[in-house]
């Protein structure tokens, strides 16, 4: 590999590292190596070896927690104190893989129920589905690749990862750690194809058994449409998370959660709080409350422990968010707070009240530190507005009335409905899934391990059982 990709800090633009880019030859070599491993069953890694590798990898990450978090914060822009939490989540995710591997081993299929099944026993066990190819996103550069690499190692599948070109250093660090922990190098490989065409050829190759994608809907659905027959896939795209705040909500409890959910990592999360629908009697109070909390947050250098909100991933993204906010204000939205660039890389925490229904901030995923508050008069109209977009991921309702909570749970589109919690909530062992344009399949460590395996049944007939 002669070409390299330079990695720059999104905060100050400084060069922080380089990684090799992958040529057509490199991609073919990675696929051929991984596929040969999968086809040679005699060389599959035994479960006890995989368990030992996972345990050792978790120990190494724990011993280097601060170093890994600083690298992730430097290349991805998430504040250091939150990057430390991200690394802790990665460690916990590896332990979840260990727990799943130790406790999930197939099941017995009932037999001897009729004449046809008499004299037989049947059971299932799990095998790796094949070569795993993962494409990851920039916003959680360490933990997202943990969710793709660790389950593959756990189930014994060779894995090839293409990280986001803006944040590949954390991915390389994780793969190096797995190799250090005892995983033979060819079982986990990182490639960064030079262009989308080559990346598409990697993903759509017939030797790929499972494709894991975390990123934009346009790219995800395009790649899904070109997969080889038989390739299983899971796509995670994101959305425009709705939160309904009922007239009876406890605002002292709700407002910090809404502000945190909207401004955490500068809004660069697939389930960030974006659309807050409030009963008209409290809409101004909610908008001002979120704004006041956002104004108190420190935006700046992600490597400082005092920083609450870091930069956006690129200057282009800062300019895009500025355009969307400016358009909304020009068409009638009230600018409650923010609405300005703090620098070339940072955008102020922003609250808009009642932006137009045709504005980008209403119709699309903002992926920036912008919270939109909308007034409603009756609950069903709020639910209708929440459900009006093609996204279906996590949604939330704040209320002290159990009937209101249950009504929203039943009527809101979404794969997870939070009650008195923001849409950002996630633990890595729970199902995490986008439906409709928000994605396909179910994420979370246990679900991912399930997707990376096939369940193989043995039926045994014996005269001794009659």
What report would you give on this structure?
The protein is of the alpha/beta class and 466 residues long. It folds into two domains: 4-237 and 438-459, Aldehyde Dehydrogenase, Chain A, domain 1, CATH 3.40.605.10; 242-419, Aldehyde Dehydrogenase, Chain A, domain 2, CATH 3.40.309. Helices cover 39% and strands 20% of the residues. The chain is built from 15 helices and 20 strands. It has helices spanning 24-39, 47-63, 65-76, 80-103, 143-155, 169-180, 196-203, 217-225, 251-263, 283-296, 315-330, 360-363, 379-386, 402-411, 445-451, and strands spanning 4-8, 15-20, 108-109, 120-128, 131-135, 159-162, 188-190, 208-214, 232-236, 242-245, 275-279, 334-337, 350-353, 370-376, 391-392, 394-398, 416-419, 435-436, 439-440, 453-461. A seven-stranded mixed beta sheet has the order 12-13-14-11-10-16-17, with helices on both faces. Strand 16 (394-398), helix 14 and strand 17 (416-419) form a beta-alpha-beta unit. The longest helix is centred in the N-terminal third of the chain and has 24 residues, at 80-103. The mean pLDDT is 96.
């Amino acid at each position: 590999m002669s070409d390299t990709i330079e990695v720059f800090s999104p905060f100050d633009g400084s060069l922080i590292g380089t990684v090799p880019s992958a040529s057509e030859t490199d991609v073919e070599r990675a696929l051929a190596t991984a596929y040969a491993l999968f086809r040679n069953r005699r060389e599959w890694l035994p479960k006890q070896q995989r368990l030992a590798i996972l345990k050792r990898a978790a120990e190494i990450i724990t011993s280097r927690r601060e170093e890994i978090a600083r690298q992730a914060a430097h290349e991805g822009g998430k504040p250091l104190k939150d990057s430390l939490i991200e690394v802790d989540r990665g460690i916990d995710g590896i332990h979840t893989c260990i727990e799943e591997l130790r406790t999930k081993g197939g099941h017995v299929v009932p037999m001897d129920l009729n004449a046809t099944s008499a004299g037989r026993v049947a059971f299932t066990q799990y095998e790796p589905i094949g070569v795993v190819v993962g494409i990851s996103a920039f916003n959680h550069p360490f933990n997202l690749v943990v969710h793709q690499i660790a389950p593959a190692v756990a189930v014994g599948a060779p894995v090839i990862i293409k990280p986001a070109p803006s944040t590949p250093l954390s991915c390389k660090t994780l793969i190096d750690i797995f190799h250090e922990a005892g995983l033979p190098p060819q079982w986990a490989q990182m490639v960064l194809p030079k262009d989308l065409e080559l990346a598409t050829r990697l993903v759509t190759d017939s030797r790929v058994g499972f494709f894991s994608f975390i990123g934009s809907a346009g790219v995800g659905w395009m790649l899904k449409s070109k997969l080889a027959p038989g390739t299983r896939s899971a796509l995670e795209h994101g959305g425009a998370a709705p939160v309904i705040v009922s007239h009876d909500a406890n605002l002292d409890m709700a407002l910090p959660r809404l502000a945190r959910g909207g401004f955490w990592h500068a809004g660069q999360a697939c389930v960030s709080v974006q659309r807050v629908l409030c009963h008209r009697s409290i809409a101004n109070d909610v908008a001002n409350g979120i704004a006041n909390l956002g104004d108190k947050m420190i935006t700046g250098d992600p490597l400082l422990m005092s920083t609450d909100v870091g930069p956006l991933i690129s200057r282009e993204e800062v300019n895009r968010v500025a355009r969307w906010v400016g358009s909304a204000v020009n068409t009638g939205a009230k600018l409650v707070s923010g609405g300005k660039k703090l620098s070339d890389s940072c955008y102020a925490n922003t609250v808009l009240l009642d932006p137009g229904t045709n504005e980008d901030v209403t119709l699309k995923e903002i992926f920036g530190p912008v919270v939109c508050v909308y007034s409603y008069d009756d609950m069903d109209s709020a639910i209708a507005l929440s459900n009006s977009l093609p996204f279906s991921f996590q949604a939330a309702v704040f209320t002290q009335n159990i009937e209101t909570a249950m009504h929203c749970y039943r009527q809101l589109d979404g794969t997870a409905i939070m009650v008195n919690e923001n849409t950002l909530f996630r633990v890595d062992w729970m199902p995490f899934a986008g439906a409709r344009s928000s994605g396909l399949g179910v994420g979370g460590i246990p679900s991912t391990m399930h997707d990376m395996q096939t369940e193989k049944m043995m039926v045994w007939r014996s005269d001794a059982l009659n």
